[in-house]
Amino acid sequence: MKTIKLVVLDMAGTTVDEDNVVYKTVQKVINDKGFHVSLEEVLEHGAGKEKHQAITDVLVACTDTENVTDTAASAFANFKPELKLAYEQLDVKTFPGVKETMEALRSAGIAVVLNTGYDRKTASSLLTKLNWEIGKDIDGLVTADDVTIGRPGPDMILKAMDICTISNPEEVLKAGDSTIDILEGKNAKCGLTVGVLSGAQNANQLKTAEPDYILENVVGLRDILL
């Protein structure tokens, strides 16, 4: 077993249970432009990505619009206010056992950093709702705002490594609920990549990215690492 010193966990669908509100909002702002994409299509083509990119990729894959750039920009302009409204009405929570698993990992000397395709304002509001604090409950937070190139590029994981002063990616495990999380980990040359079934994508979808493990949820990391 590789020695893992840092676990990088995705937020929505992995550590944060928000009932797919982000992707439902992506679906809404796209369909408000006159399309009829399904939530399943949004999850397939947009899960885990920075949200402007997610909207763009869903439009390309699932519609026949000829003006993707302008349509995506217009839909994305509506996304943040729509998401803010949705979050104000939403009971954000974590999945059972996640907080205890993060505590166990940190107690064993393994750093835990959350990363996300959200912007920092949205991600920070989620942490506030969960009453999680950097330095107390997690070792760091890396958002789409913190890097130039988002997933599946490795930049957010490299940023997490920098926060924790870890130079060897073989000592890093990346876990998430979408293929884009797994590809991000592979592109960062992480020692282990893990797909979890608590969020956006099913086992068959996750298998296409060839993770080292597919787990029901983050709690299963305890069996791998502790």
UniProtKB/TrEMBL annotation:
GO terms for biological process: DNA repair. The keyword Hydrolase applies. It comes from the Bacteria. The keyword Hydrolase applies. It holds the Pfam family HAD_2. One of its GO terms (cellular component) is cytosol. InterPro entries: HAD-like_hydrolase_sf, HAD-like_sf, HAD_2, HAD_sf, PGP-like_dom2, PhnX-like. Keywords: Hydrolase. One of its GO terms (molecular function) is phosphoglycolate phosphatase activity. PANTHER family: PHOSPHOGLYCOLATE PHOSPHATASE (PTHR43434), PHOSPHONOACETALDEHYDE HYDROLASE (PTHR43434:SF19). This is Phosphonatase-like hydrolase.
